[in-house]
Design brief:
21% strand; 18 helices; 4-stranded antiparallel sheet; Threonyl-tRNA Synthetase, Chain A, domain 2; 9-stranded mixed sheet; BirA Bifunctional Protein, domain 2; alpha+beta; 18 strands; 3 domains
């Protein structure tokens, strides 16, 4: 069975039972700052679970693409994925436990449907706690359907309770369904959910029947809901008798690509883990970039997760012996295979491919520099009797070379060592404290990093600021900026999204100023004199009585204290990667010099 066949069968089953098929939502939750990505099918439906009327009715069925960043460390085993599709059926104050459990049993075991042997089925239900009784009702329904009591396991809150979306709100017990894989038990206490691999979770029915109050009480919910979830990839793996979620049709092109590029013989356990990590992370990265709300790699929020996934992909590809660019080719395989189900991948194809190619090339330089430095340090590191890479060394690799601490840990492990993570975090926090202290000095505007690229990007922010005021109007004021050696981020006041034409005009003006090879000169003067000279600068009151004013030809005049080039020629080609809202009335531009 393929993923497409499973989706079709599931939707058909519930449509026959009065459910309306609805579309899935973006990977990027709207109006929810508590999570970076959509982690479950319930996220887009929270308003309706809270009582708002859904236009399609009270019985719904859908599939939702999800990302769970908490599973990144587990990827490489036989079951965990970062990106996956989740099937779900929903009751918004309509049916409840009996119907949900009965239909789950029927879909899993019915000959017309998935046809799993009932004797391989085990389930878990909530054992009770915090004033909520054990879910005897769910257990009795399972027994009525033929599941013997020794295969019905009562588990606690960590396993069988679905909490509210926030600190308060709808919540309740759940019942999870497992298939016995036939593997040997891990011991006398082996049970569903123990993690040994004998029991494979395939479906979860959540019964939202309580409302958690601010006082920590669980009161009966007026609108009781059913919220279910079945992972497409996991279920297809079980139906096909696959050894792992990576041995299903959806991953076949990616695995074949990796085998061909690596040229390695049959993979051992270590290389198998690397193959799975590369395949998962390449697919996940493609979906992050291919989403209609997709973001480019960055050092913040979703962009940071994306950057981490891409860098881990490159690292493990090198372990497989794959040299040179590869992510763009893998992304094409994902887009070609999945754009029929997720059409946004096709719409955003160019953006996804360009971002992956650029990030991979950029990181290759970082990776080589960091690995060379690690190899240089290795003889001394091996002399450490504790077999430990000091935290300050790991931080220096990160701070100086951009080498992720996760990579240092992997390299250390390959040589029988570990990283002093506590020491690393202490060095990182000290660095952050110094950065905060530097930002609070009376004379502000300086950058700790005066490297060539940071200097160019800092100068580019002046050109960008002026170009924005020229194109959008004099109401534009800088509201903040963040510059790394890789990109600039610039926040500014403006009430609406920029049009494509406006973005192109801003790029044209900035690149024109760069091509003109304008001289950059500095003058120190009083604040009033700077204002009379036409200098712009949002933070004048923080500079003191005397300020530095930078003149970039006759194009830009701005109060500043950071590093600047002597002339604009040779800065590179300025390109805006994204323009989007940062907060109410504030827009955010991310841009690079190529």
């Amino acid at each position: 069975m393929t993923a497409a066949e499973l989706r079709g069968m599931y939707i058909d089953f519930f449509v026959r039972r009065g459910h309306a098929k609805i579309g899935g939502a973006s990977l990027f939750p709207e109006n929810d700052s508590t999570v970076l990505f959509t982690t479950a099918g319930m996220h887009p439906l929270v308003p309706f679970l809270l009582g708002e009327k859904h236009p399609a009715g009270r019985r719904l069925v859908d599939f939702q693409k999800c990302i769970r960043t908490g599973d990144i460390e587990s990827v490489g085993d036989s079951t965990h994925l970062t990106f996956f599709d989740m099937l779900g059926n929903w009751s918004l104050g309509d049916y409840f436990k009996r119907e949900a459990i009965t239909w789950s049993y029927e879909f899993l075991t019915g000959r017309e449907w998935l046809g799993f042997d009932p004797s391989r089925r085990s389930v878990t239900v909530f054992a009770g706690g915090d004033g909520v009784p054990p879910d005897e009702e769910a257990a009795s329904i399972w027994e009525e359907l033929g599941i013997p009591s020794d295969r019905i396991h009562f588990l606690g809150r960590e396993d069988n309770w679905w909490g509210p979306a926030g600190a308060t709100g709808p919540c309740g017990p759940d019942t999870e369904m497992f298939i016995d894989t036939g593997r040997d038990a891990c011991g006398a206490s082996c049970r569903p959910g123990c993690g040994c691999g004998k029991y494979f979770e395939i479906w979860n029915d959540v019964f939202m029947q309580y409302n958690k109050t601010r006082e920590g009480l669980y009161l009966p919910l007026e609108q009781r809901n059913v919220d279910t979830g079945m992972g497409v990839e996991r279920t297809v793996a079980m139906i096909n008798g696959a050894a792992s979620v990576f041995d299903i049709p959806a991953y076949a092109p990616l695995m074949e690509f990796l085998d061909a590029r690596s040229g390695a013989p049959a993979p051992d356990q270590s290389s198998m883990r690397s193959r799975r990590i590369v395949a998962d992370h390449a697919r996940t990265s493609t979906h992050i970039l291919g989403d209609d709300l997709g973001v480019p790699p960055s050092n913040l929020d979703q962009g940071y997760v994306l950057r981490r996934l891409i860098r881990l992909s490159v690292r493990h590809a090198r372990k497989l012996g794959i040299e040179g660019p590869f992510l763009e080719d893998m992304a094409r395989l994902v887009i070609d295979a999945e754009s029929g189900v997720h059409p946004e991948l096709g719409r955003n194809r160019s953006f996804a491919l360009e971002c992956l190619a650029r990030e991979e090339a950029q990181f290759e330089k970082t990776l080589q520099g960091g690995m060379r430095e690690f190899e240089r340090l290795l003889p001394n590191l091996k002399r450490n009797p504790l077999g430990m890479v000091p935290g300050r060394v790991a931080f220096t690799l990160y701070d100086t070379y951009g080498f992720p601490v996760e990579f240092t840990a992997e390299l250390a492990a390959e040589h029988g060592m570990a990283v002093d993570m506590e020491g690393y975090r202490a060095a990182l926090e000290k660095h952050r404290e110094l950065s905060r202290a530097g930002a609070e000095r009376k004379f502000t505007g300086g950058l700790a990093d005066h490297s060539d690229m940071v200097t160019k990007l800092h100068t580019a922010t002046h050109l960008l600021h002026k170009a924005l005021r020229t194109v959008l109007g004099s109401h534009v004021e800088q509201k903040g900026s963040n510059i790394t050696a890789e990109r600039l981020r610039f926040d500014f006041s403006h009430p609406a999204p920029m049009t494509d034409a406006e973005i192109e005009e801003v790029e044209r003006l900035v690149n024109g100023a760069i091509a003109s090879d304008l001289p950059v000169r500095i003058e120190e003067m009083g604040v009033d004199e700077a204002q009379r000279a036409g200098a712009i600068g949002l933070f004048k009151e923080r500079y003191g009585e005397r300020v530095k004013v930078y003149f970039i030809g006759d194009f830009s005049t701005e109060i500043c204290g950071g590093p600047h080039v002597e002339r604009t020629g040779g800065m590179g080609r300025f390109r805006i990667l994204s323009e989007k809202s940062s907060s109410q009335g504030i827009r955010r531009i991310r841009a690079v010099l190529e």
